[in-house]
Amino acid sequence: CSGTGTCTLTVEGDVTVGAVFGRQTVTLTVASAGDGDGLVLSNPLGIACPGSCDASFTAGTDVTLQAFPDAWSYFKGWRGGGCSDTDPCTVHLTSDTGVTAIFCQIGRDKPSKLCQD
């Protein structure tokens, strides 16, 4: 047998059979939005980005994201991946997932729509 489908064997005596199982990987994509700037880091390591980036993880992994705004910005919150609020967010990865970190500039006269309260 070969490939990824079903394998049926007819055994007529002693036979050695082996199988190789690969771990499925999924992609976590982190994007930045708003009119501010900041950095998003992950645990386990893989995500370390200002702006947008992605990383591959083994399916079933819990990845915790934490946002760090720059000096003249604040972190408004998360969107996507089951994340909300401003606390660190843990994403349980079972498929490709996207999360957006919203950073807003402090004291901006005309904030972007994402940064308006």
Number of helices: 0
User: How do the strands line up in the largest sheet?
Assistant: 4-1-8-6
Radius of gyration: 21 Å
Q: Note the main sheet.
A: 4 strands, mixed
The rough form would be described as rod-shaped
The H-and-E topology, N to C, reads as: EEEEEEEE
Q: Give the tally of β-strands.
A: 8
Strand pairing plus helix content: what structural class?
mainly beta
What is the mean pLDDT?
91
For the termini, the CA-CA separation is 60 Å
Strand content: 35-45%
Task: Compose a concise summary of this entry.
With 117 residues, this protein is mostly beta strands.
What does this structure look like?
The protein is an all-beta fold and 117 residues long. Helix content is 0%, strand content 44%. The chain has no helices and 8 strands. The chain has a 4-stranded mixed beta sheet, with no helix packed on it. A 4-stranded antiparallel beta sheet has the order 3-2-5-7, with no helix packed on it. The model has no long low-confidence stretch (mean pLDDT 91).
